[in-house]
Each structure stands twice: as C-alpha cells, then as structure tokens.
C-alpha cells in the first residue's frame, strides 16, 4: 500500500499543474467554489479540503486521486523558518513587528480584553491603483474573542 502524499508533495504537484495549465489561483477558486485566499492556502497545504473541493480542484488541474487524498488531510499549522525568510513573507513579519503592539492596543481599546480569531477569519488581497505605484491591500477580518474567566 502506497502512503498518502504529504501536504508538501501535494502542494508541489498543484503548483506545477497550475503553471503548466496556465491557470490563475482565481480560476481554481471559482471552480472549487471557495474564497480565493482560502483556496490558495488549502492547495498549498495549509487547510484541509472536503472531498468535493479536492475533486473539483484535481479535475481542473488534471491531477489524480492521490493528490485529492492528500488535499483532504488535516495539516500541521506550524511556523516554517525557511518560508519566513522569503522577502514577501518577511515584510509581513516586519509590519507586524512594527505595528503589532499598536494594533493590539487599539483592539483592546475598542473591544476590550481579547483577541482576533484566526480560525473564524477571512483574508483578502486586492490592488489599489496609485499614481506613485499600485498599492497592495490586505484585509484581515477576524471574529473578536473576549477572554472569559
């Protein structure tokens, strides 16, 4: 019996198939019927997909049942230090290092003692034209969870 493909191996297959097919992440998300950022994260191994979602993605990408099986696995959501050094991802770390304490203070001032959920959560990426160069707009939308004692 062959082992189930790892999330990393599945992600590699998905990225390769997407590039060779000339598909955008948005086209895949539309086929799967799920939000763009969530779909991209799931196909890169950070969320489990339902059987229907995995089948739709694999059908579009021309990938087999072995990849669909891997897409359904529950992932480990751990920090990857190698990924953290990527310049784009590092800038998110840098922004949170600079603005994280201020965001925490402002969340506490507005909502009270608690946190923003990253489970009951959506995220979106968009482009905003600007004369000095287009702007990247990232929106985090998380449910407020108050600390209860």
Automatic annotation (TrEMBL):
<dbReference type="Pfam" id="PF02560">
    <property type="entry name" value="Cyanate_lyase"/>
</dbReference>
<feature type="domain" description="Cyanate lyase C-terminal">
    <location>
        <begin position="78"/>
        <end position="149"/>
    </location>
</feature>
<dbReference type="InterPro" id="IPR008076">
    <property type="entry name" value="Cyanase"/>
</dbReference>
<comment type="function">
    <text>Catalyzes the reaction of cyanate with bicarbonate to produce ammonia and carbon dioxide.</text>
</comment>
<dbReference type="Pfam" id="PF21291">
    <property type="entry name" value="CYNS_N"/>
</dbReference>
<feature type="active site">
    <location>
        <position position="117"/>
    </location>
</feature>
<keyword id="KW-0456">Lyase</keyword>
<feature type="active site">
    <location>
        <position position="94"/>
    </location>
</feature>
<comment type="similarity">
    <text>Belongs to the cyanase family.</text>
</comment>
<dbReference type="InterPro" id="IPR003712">
    <property type="entry name" value="Cyanate_lyase_C"/>
</dbReference>
<dbReference type="InterPro" id="IPR010982">
    <property type="entry name" value="Lambda_DNA-bd_dom_sf"/>
</dbReference>
<dbReference type="InterPro" id="IPR036581">
    <property type="entry name" value="Cyanate_lyase_C_sf"/>
</dbReference>
<feature type="active site">
    <location>
        <position position="91"/>
    </location>
</feature>
<dbReference type="InterPro" id="IPR048564">
    <property type="entry name" value="CYNS_N"/>
</dbReference>
<protein>
    <recommendedName>
        <fullName>Cyanate hydratase</fullName>
        <ecNumber>4.2.1.104</ecNumber>
    </recommendedName>
</protein>
């Amino acid at each position: 019996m062959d082992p189930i493909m790892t999330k990393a191996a599945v992600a590699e297959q998905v990225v390769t198939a997407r590039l060779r097919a000339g598909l955008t992440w948005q086209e895949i998300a539309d086929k799967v019927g799920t939000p763009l950022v969530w779909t991209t994260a799931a196909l890169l191994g950070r969320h489990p997909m339902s059987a229907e979602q995995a089948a739709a993605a694999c059908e579009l990408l021309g990938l087999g049942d072995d990849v669909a099986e891997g897409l359904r696995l529950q992932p480990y959501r751990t920090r990857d230090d190698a990924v953290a050094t990527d310049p784009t991802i590092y800038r998110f770390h840098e922004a949170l290092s600079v603005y994280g304490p201020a965001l925490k203070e402002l969340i506490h001032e507005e909502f009270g003692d608690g946190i923003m959920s990253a489970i009951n959560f959506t995220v979106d990426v968009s482009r905003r034209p600007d004369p000095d160069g287009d702007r990247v707009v990232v929106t985090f939308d998380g449910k407020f969870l108050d600390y209860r004692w």
